[in-house]
Amino acid sequence: MRAKEKRTNSERILCKNGNTAISTRPLFLNGTTRDVEAWAHANLPKHALMQRAGLAIARLAMAIAPHAQVIWIACGPGNNGGDGYEAAAYLKRWGKSPVVTACSHKDILPTDAAASRQSALDAGVAITLEVPDQYDLCIDALFGIGKIRGFDPHYTDWIKRINSGTAPVLAVDTPSGLNAETGTCLLGSVHADYTLSLLTLKPGLFTASGREACGEIWFNSLGVETSMGMCAVLSGTPQPFARAHNTHKGNFGDVGVVGGTQGMTGAALLAAVAALHGGAGRVYLALLDDSIARIDTNQPELMFRNLDEIYFESMVIVAGCGGGEAITGHLEEILERSKRLVLDADALNAISRDLVLQRKLKSRSHLTTVLTPHPLEAARLMNIQGADVQANRLSVAQSMADQFGCTIVLKGSGTVIAAPSSIARINPTGNARLATAGTGDVLAGLIGAHLASGKNAFESACESAYRHGEVAEKWHHAYPLTAHNLARNL
How wide is the angle at C-alpha 141 spanned by C-alphas 139 and 142, nearest 5°? Predict the structure, then answer.
């Protein structure tokens, strides 16, 4: 499947508030945009591609702000600036008043961008160093997939003006300063309200700082048909799960949750409640704190058991939630006996410190095990710094999947799901409501329920992450979305 069925008009991909407006099919992401540009230039007249980009930008600008009259277009010294010049020419011909700010003279612009600059001048567009005092829309055409460099102090000043202004901001390709491949942002990068991704969808738009920087994301292929350079997939909506009438609880599998040492039993309870509301037929809970009552009156369906009463071979085991140091002594048996396994939190920390446990994890059959680390847990497992994880989430998740032979769910903004010999997925759902204690335990339990239904580890992880985030997006109650509320609304 290509990134999406190509159309000449812009297609909406993802809203700033997290509400999805995409098809139910996965969308391919491309991390090698310059290769695609080179391919496109080899198959199209060079200036034609920039003209298409300018038209796409101008059309989206009018869709965003149909009544805008004065439109400030900040143009950079490369092809992103050339796209901005073309957009300015179209807007001028349509009766608008675009004002282009640019530092570069035509003799230092790339050939295509210089031609587009001349097109803007021929259309009567004003090109100046001065930002208009009042404007109705701003278009960031400074750097796109390039990085902010010390070309001229005007650029830094313009970015400050863009971010402090009250008019909506439309970024061309990517907000200036955002790394299109990793989602990391330079200091002083543009924060857009809308981003029009051209030619390909870039993974950096959907993970790390990308979603915050991009605002509402739109896509236009510019009519270029290519699937080269595919590096990830943006997950689509899972198919609804329908239960056949002639079924019973045994058809939907058993989940056993192991965790919850003294002072942290809530984490294990949350994972168990999530597994139950996620569709598991039966959920068993083996707490590592013997002092806790053996019933949850708020969720009496949960069945409490001693650890030696948990049948590792026949259940999906969710281990580590609230496990503390107590989980460490049980992990060797869990890794050896469990046929299907989700490892979270303290189980991951214990494995990161123990080479024997790491070897046992690596020896498990592929597609049977899911690890659900947050960035710091991932850093411990990979023996790197947390900042290194966030600097390249796709690469780290894939390296972890390959190293341990497991499905990895690297949590965070734009959760990355990776598995050995598979194309990674980026989850498009979720928002800051999930930034509260216990939501990761809920995700672990939900993955366990999907595994118990018979799905493989990768499919279970992708669908669970999507549903987990979707609940947060649809939460419209006045009271906060706690982890317990999240679990009960799965």
Answer: 125
